[in-house]
Amino acid sequence: MASAKKYISRNCEICSSLEYREVHRILEYRIVECMKCHFVFLDPVPGRTPVEIYDEDYFRGKIAVENTFNVEGWDFFEPENFRNFLTQCRARLDRVETFTKGGTLLDIGCGIGLFLHEAKSRGWHVHGIDASPFAVSYARQELGLETVQQMDVDNLVYDSGTMDAITLHHVIEHVINPRRLLQSASRIIKKGGILVIETPDISSKRAKRAGLNWKYLRIPEHLNYFSAATLNRLLEQTGFGVLQREYAVESTGMMNALLGGEEKARSLYDQWSRCGAFRWAVRSTRRINEYISGKLVGEFDILTVTARKR
Ligand SMILES: [Zn+2]
């Protein structure tokens, strides 16, 4: 079903300014930078609804028609991708647990629910929402996550002050109203609760060097291109204080090599992942590895910000 509106025009989400300069032009879209606060965003945005964009094809790595060049799809269900994604989910949960010990967790844009599945197995009370009917039905039926619901991020129907942690992994770049999303998160989360946002970093050396070929310039999915500075500003405006910033690259493969290959690394992780010291060692090694690759070749282009609700 086609949407009524083909394109939607936008103001700057951070400072409402209408003054911006064009950074890139891709098909009928422009990626623009606000002259006042330097927030980078897509204008106009496609009028297609999230339900139309995030269908089964999306999760199986098939590319949308108007997608930009140099973008590869990512099939979540290809066995190796699935296993890598599970490892990534565990690392993400380790991060959340560094700041808060269990409780109620809401994963916004939870996709097929693997992260929540892992969180539930570690004792969290989990909730999740996703715009995609396909992903939600997978999470509910295949992973038994009955508290995952199909819901529009613009209208989150959770009670105020109910969540100990909210996670947004590669979600904020997809939503048309990131400010409204963080305002909702701020309302739903308990005072002192933890918000984690992971998103591509437009101010990274890699993004600058790659220009139009940067892998995260994805149209029609990516509407917002944050940097630490613009994300920090939006978090401050919506009632959060930043606790930690981390920069990452997609797995360099070094850790698996050190542990004797991917299969071995995975079975070690499966065996020891309940041991806090092991998780700490894995996390530290990964961070050292990423720090080195980032420092030496400037390859960091994923930003993760952990913030606390004031
Ligand atoms: Zn602005």
Description:
This protein has 310 residues and is an alpha/beta fold. It has one domain (7-309): Rossmann fold (3-Layer(aba) Sandwich), CATH 3.40.50. It has helices at 50-53, 56-59, 79-99, 114-121, 133-141, 178-188, 205-210, 228-237, 254-258, 262-272, 276-297, and strands at residues 7-8, 20-26, 29-34, 40-43, 45-46, 104-108, 125-130, 148-150, 163-169, 189-200, 224-225, 240-248, 302-309. The strands form three sheets. Strands 8-7-6-9-10-13-12 form a seven-stranded mixed beta sheet, sandwiched between helices. Strands 2-3-4-11 form a four-stranded antiparallel beta sheet, with no helix packed on it. Strands 1-5 form a two-stranded antiparallel ribbon. The protein starts with 6 loop residues before the first strand and ends with a strand.
Q: What is the overall number of helices?
A: 11
Distance between the termini: 42 Å
**CATH architecture heading:** 3-Layer(aba) Sandwich
**Biggest sheet architecture:** 7 strands, mixed
SSE pattern, N- to C-terminal:
EEEEEHHHEHEHEEHEHEHEHHHE
Tertiary shape? globular
Content-based structural category: alpha/beta
Radius of gyration: 19 Å
Specify the helix fraction band: 25-40%
What is the H level of CATH, i.e. the homologous superfamily?
Vaccinia Virus protein VP39
